[in-house]
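Lest this sound abstract, we think one record worth quoting, the chain in one-letter code, the fold tokenised, each line plainly labelled:

>
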Amino acid sequence: MNNNIPNPFILDTNAYFLFFQHPKKPHYYKLINKVSENPVISFYISEITSMEIQSVIGKYRRGSTTQVQKCDRNITIDDEIKNCQNSWIIRGRRKMRRKVYRGIQKMLKDIERQRGTIQATILKLSPDTIIKARKILMDYADTFNIGSHDAVIIATLIKTVEEQNIPLTLVTSDKGMKAVLSAKLIPFFDPQE
């Protein structure tokens, strides 16, 4: 167990997933530089992120088939509005091998149990967190593209700042979350910028 205080960053699920992506993308290294305190990489995650990452990893384990979709948009051709006759493709993804999946599951457990050089401190959900998340949705869902999981992550940050006086910065590349954070004057870091 790590007795050190984690760096004051809370990661959303997509930022957390950067640790498990292969090959590593450039924004992974920006994230590591931001949250690393040699030799340990430490950060906070919401309990909902700890749950949601399982869904994301599971999606990669299952893989997907190539999907062909008919375009149903109206387009302009020679100043006339016509139905699009094209199709678009979502490329399939190979199923993750069982050995890789189990390795990622072990890594997740080690991170969340704070064993090793990457350590996450999980911030527990409470009824108060859900109340704050609902208020965020009521205040901002009609203006910004913010989902319920995102609202719970922001509410977790707000609750932690209020109750534990930890000046957290949210790590996210999500446009809707960044818009809400800006409106609420909450600091964030986007590793993709």
